[in-house]
């Protein structure tokens, strides 16, 4: 008992320290990328899609690898990949003149705008809904007798759909209101999680729900990034992206993961995706009521 608590404590400390540094790096990369793009910020997804391509290659290859090797082999693979990320980060050029250009509005005044507050709540709920998916989806499929290879393919299908969206979404963003694109992702997100909960044994529906990842993450993330980029200008860019990343991928995912763990242990696996559907539906209601003001205001 004591040994288990000690091991858990060590894992907690390691993951806590890792998350501090990892979470701090991502928003800065986002801000630098958008600043390099300048007036062509809608093309952000052309850059972002390469992360998805890397993810596809990883899940397919690792799915096959872990049918032959123990899961412990993942540790040196992760260390190696993180080393490559660090080395690559050293080559990223700085862009101080645009990123730190002074602006009249204070960070607090931008943050307290009603549509920004509602946007952050929506982002929190969306990622809370993805918490069960990122943490338990593979285990969920294993529980329903799917092979490791199929699980890897299922993950790849979702990210391939995401990549396809990233290829052309910049054209869509420049033609349609961000609010309506966000609402579309929330509706499809609710459908996705309900389908995952109730139709896990139906292979066609399962693949369809994975394709919806194009909307529930691909379109959602592209739209959210544009919201933040348009509002948090100049010297506020880095802090704006950090806030978005912290509220959604940090707090939102942590909350969703924690709740889904309790739900699985108490009620069962299906209930965690019903929780995801509830989060998406709640975000849809909030977005419908409060995000409308933003589209009539400064962002457009």
Question: How are the elements arranged and paired?
Answer:
Elements: H1 2-37, H2 44-65, H3 74-89, H4 96-99, H5 107-111, H6 114-143, H7 148-173, H8 178-198, H9 203-211, H10 213-231, H11 237-266, H12 269-295
General description of the model:
Mean pLDDT is 83; it is low at 293-300. The chain is built from twelve helices and no strands. It is mainly alpha-helical and 300 residues long. It is globular, with a radius of gyration of 20 Å. It has a single domain (2-295), classed as MFS general substrate transporter like domains (Growth Hormone, Chain: A), CATH 1.20.1250.20. It has helices at 2-37, 44-65, 74-89, 96-99, 107-111, 114-143, 148-173, 178-198, 203-211, 213-231, 237-266, 269-295.
Short description:
The chain contains twelve helices and no strands. It is mainly alpha-helical.
Assign the CATH superfamily: MFS general substrate transporter like domains
Helix content: over 70%
Number of spatially distinct domains: 1
Q: Report the top-level CATH class.
A: Mainly Alpha
Total DSSP E strands: 0
* Binned strand content: under 5%
- Integer-rounded radius of gyration: 20 Å
Termini separation comes to 58 Å
Tertiary shape: globular
Q: What's the multimeric state?
A: single chain
Mean pLDDT: 83
Number of helices: 12
Largest sheet: none
The CATH architecture category equals Up-down Bundle
By helix and strand content, what is the structural category?
A: mainly alpha
CATH topology term: Growth Hormone, Chain: A
Uncertain segments: 293-300
- SSE arrangement, N to C: HHHHHHHHHHHH
